[in-house]
Amino acid sequence: MQPEPNGFSIYVSDLTRRLQKDHTVNHFQLREMSISHCTGCWACWWKTPGICAIKDDMDRIFATIMASEFLIFASPIMRGFTSSLLKRMTDRLVTLLHPYIILNNGECHHRKRYERYPDFGLLLEKEHDTDNEDIEIIRDIYDRFALNFHCKQRIVWLTDLHKTNEIAYDTNNI
Amino acid sequence: MTLTIFNGSPRKHKSNSTLLTEHFLEGFHSVQERENVRVCYLAETRMLQENLETFKQSEYVIVIFPLYTDCMPGLVKEFFELLPVKDSLATLKLGFVVQSGFPESNHSIYVERYLKKLAQRLNCSYLGTVIKGGVEGIRSMPSSMNKKVFERFYQLGVHFAENGEFSGEIMEKMKNPVKFNSMGLIIFRFLKLAGLVDYYWKTNLKKNGAYHKRNNKPYSNKINRQL
Predict the structure, then answer these.
(1) What is the ipTM score, two decimals?
(2) Of chain B residues 49-78, which have a CB less than 8 A from chain A?
(3) Contact B74 A98 (CB under 8 A)
(4) Which residues of chain B lie closer than 8 angstroms to A106, CB-CB?
(5) Which whole number is the average pLDDT over B70-91?
(6) Is residue A168 one of the residues assigned to a domain?
(7) What is the fold, at CATH topology level, of the domain defined by B3-179?
(8) How buried is B223 (Cβ within 10 angstroms: 0-12 exposed, 13-18 middle, 19+ buried)?
């Protein structure tokens, strides 16, 4: 999910082909899609509940996410975190939540809008200076994301440690 | 001291980040000259190159943003990805302010770890991260209700202008509560029962004639649809 096709994109495409043997897979190349930044307008919470005011390719992603059993967020690490492209997409996912606040784990979180939200795995490609602390920071932030989205982060894969057939195997066993 | 504040809110001038910045700067300007300060909006994408140049040339930088899905908004991350590395920022002193709608600061301490590491990665001096929860809706609240938070941002600005750093004491105060204690949980449950926790959302839903649609699930009927 970087600006130009590269080793990471090829890796993700190969993973998609492997997963397609056992699953229906929707593969979104975010860089090829029209996805605007969330503007914080709250239309999705108080004007047209559940529907984002921005009309772009997110509509396909919202529908696909809610129809999926499992998600994989795939991104190269850039400046110590997942890409801004992926972040731009995940920022928009607040549309799938309800504005009302509940206590979850003794903390305030937004209520569910839907009955269930799919669990997810995170697939990362290290950058030249990535260390274990970076991976822990990313994993912990996505665990928080999971808490807010009423789902679980099931696994973190790294392209230099995991082959695509291993990721397909793990996914089949989740 | 020359200070640049980068506002990372997608709401730009009409943001809670702007409001908090104004109170910070009021305090700052009670000590330092106005011409030493610049405020830039990261959501002004046409200003991107100028913002990057300003960042590089600044002595002190504060990046303020709202917590978006447990981290910085995508547009702030986009800016971080374009900043230079190596030694060009070695003299820069970099701090952050993270504000969120949730009342507890626990939501923001995870991104704080990232921001500290980012400053290290950019080879800047890290000034710390101010965390303030309970900010959503403050623009629509009477100013008397926000007196304490505005006063703290004012004092934070005074201290920053005098010392070139965030006041640890004020940061600690603003961080509270990190999580609700047992009394906080009791109060929350009481307010929830009284319908006050969601008052802000309910009021706006009603104002927009959308209250009856509040539980809509527009994507639930698309289950199993092939896309």
Answers:
(1) 0.94
(2) 66, 68-75, 77-78
(3) no
(4) 179-180, 185
(5) 90
(6) yes
(7) Rossmann fold (3.40.50)
(8) exposed
